Amino acid sequence: MNDDIPRLFALQERHNVFEDIIAGLYGAVLQPGDLAVDGGANRGLHSFPMAESVGPAGQVIAFEPIPWLAETLRIEGGKRGLPQLEIRQQALAAEAGRAAFHWIRNADGYSGLQPRDYPSEPDRELIEVETIRLDQLLGGVGRPFRFMKLDLEGGEFRAMQGAGQALAAHRPVIVFENARAGAARAYGYDAETYFGFFDGLGYRLRDLFGRPFTRAEWESPGLPWYFIATARPEDHALLDRAVPEILARVAGAARA
């Protein structure tokens, strides 16, 4: 696995292979009939294959607060015949209500509830969006909640706080963007609060390459911007097996 990591960083610049790794992860975890959440669905890169993985007996709930993207996802989901895919035009957060949302019109994937550093001059429009706590939606859900992907441009930790009860009850595998100190400054928390939350729920953290992530690595360089959280012993074991295989497969496919 270690031999693949430098290659994967280089390949990411040209082929965006981190998304392929994420796809490999939910491909390894999800089974027909499961429930999955896609927070920050954007154009459905992961929403649609996740819905195919859980099948008609399962459910994927995709959250996308930008109106035109949410409508596009609904239309495309209908065309693909995926009634198990539910699109919600809401932003995941720690509290329910209304909030200003920074829509970056020339790079909508960088949009979020708080401003961030942008790779180019943003064409920014503030829009009002509905925020929701995931616990509001998943209380008493019957099917197994097995996987959650969060790409919220810094808002991931606050969204997980809003899902604390569901995480404690179901202990899904979580793959999430993690800007670490930058996100903590923008969203008003610190490393102690962050790690205390995961410790309290019994979650183990690792980076996208499967390496342990602890308080000591909070400001370490050379980490990918996606991370993995697992709480079930069987999921620890699953990812111990699956992550090296996924990395090798993705690195090999990108080089081919």
Search tags:
256 residues; alpha/beta; Rossmann fold; seven-stranded mixed sheet; 10 strands; 41% helix; FkbM family methyltransferase; methyltransferase activity; transferase; FkbM_mtfrase; methyltransferase
Topology, pairings included?
Layout: H1 4-15, H2 17-29, E1 35-39, H3 47-54, E2 59-63, H4 67-79, E3 85-88, E4 91-92, E5 97-104, E6 124-132, H5 134-138, E7 145-150, H6 156-161, H7 164-170, E8 173-177, H8 181-187, H9 191-201, E9 204-207, E10 226-230, H10 233-255
Helix pairs in contact: 1-10, 2-10
Question: What features would you describe in this structure?
Answer:
This is FkbM family methyltransferase. One of its GO terms (biological process) is methylation. InterPro entries: FkbM_mtfrase, SAM-dependent_MTase, SAM-dependent_MTases_sf. One of its GO terms (molecular function) is methyltransferase activity. Keywords: Methyltransferase, Transferase. The chain has helices at residues 4-15, 17-29, 47-54, 67-79, 134-138, 156-161, 164-170, 181-187, 191-201, 233-255, and strands spanning 35-39, 59-63, 85-88, 91-92, 97-104, 124-132, 145-150, 173-177, 204-207, 226-230. It is α/β, with parallel strands linked by helices. It has one domain (4-255): 3-Layer(aba) Sandwich (Rossmann fold), CATH 3.40.50.150. A seven-stranded mixed sheet has the order 3-2-1-7-8-10-9. A three-stranded mixed sheet has the order 4-6-5. Helix 4 links the parallel strand 2 and strand 3 (85-88). Helix 2 (17-29) runs antiparallel to helix 10. The two termini are 18 Å apart.
